[in-house]
Amino acid sequence: MTVTVSPHSRPADAPEARPAPVAEARPLQQGRPDNPPLPPRLPGWRGTFAWALVRSVRPRQWVKNVLVLAAPMAAGVVHRPEVLGPTAVAFLLFCLASSAVYLVNDTIDVLEDRRHPRKRFRPIAAGIVPRWLAVTMAAVLFAAALTAAVVLTRPALAGVLGAYVVIQLAYCLFLKNQPVIDLAVVASGFLLRGIAGGAAAGIALSQWFLLVAAFGSLFMVAGKRYSELVVLGDAAATRKTLQEYSASYLRFVWSLSAGVACTAYCLWAFEMGRAQEGVPWSTISIAPFVMAFLRYARDVDKGAAGAPEEIVLGDRVLLVLGLLWAALVGIGIYTR
Fold this sequence. Notes:
Elements: H1 49-56, H2 70-75, H3 81-108, H4 110-114, H5 131-152, H6 155-173, H7 181-201, H8 207-232, H9 247-274, H10 281-284, H11 286-301, H12 308-314, H13 316-334
Helix pairs in contact: 3-5, 3-6, 3-7, 5-6, 6-7, 7-8, 8-9, 9-11, 11-13
């Protein structure tokens, strides 16, 4: 005879059934995609807190601020004390303001940076510099730069620096996630540096200067994005806007911007050459200028232009072309 036991019945000596325990909620563990692990600390003095503070303000990026010299040099007045002094102040103020922007940006992007093969070693992303300290340092640098701009410089320079700070903070907070607009905003940072040099020295800026500076900046920014897209590949999600761009689109942007910048420079050089007696040095400078663009474009196409300042300082041929171009322009300006 077969005895059927009801699933609801149990022997008298059997232990009472208990519901399965519910897993308690636990904080996110490091190593998951939404909370990447901290990278190993760099060996030796490079991994110290003091050096991390220096790295967090990105002093290598200060080379970009040399652009404030562009307008006074193009006007041939950079050697005058009444011009050199305000221009040097503009350079220092942009160093302070740009470092503050980098601190804010790295504080906001800390999780995304930890998923990036190189950016994860940045001091804030690596957890060496606390986020609260980075924000405090940024506030101090912003206050120092804007106060000094109002007290020590012309109102025009203070306005340019203030515009730079507002635009860059807007970029850090939300504009960086807007395709195309993010390219224009980053390019505007280079353009405003060039405008600041003219504002500091009280120089009226040429329309050709503005065109070359604007589209040259867009060329570098589009090249930087293209290099990031090529290098990261499927990991391009570390920057949200990279998911919105294709390699062909970015190639189109930097081809267009290079074409406009070179054309504008040629017209500007021919205009300056007509005012020069004897050898048209400004016209001759077109050759190294265009060759430098082509050399930089080669680095972009290889995916090696992720950091423009590293390309300029690391490519000796490009550096020689740049120095040759600057020498020809300088001779043309000072022999007019």
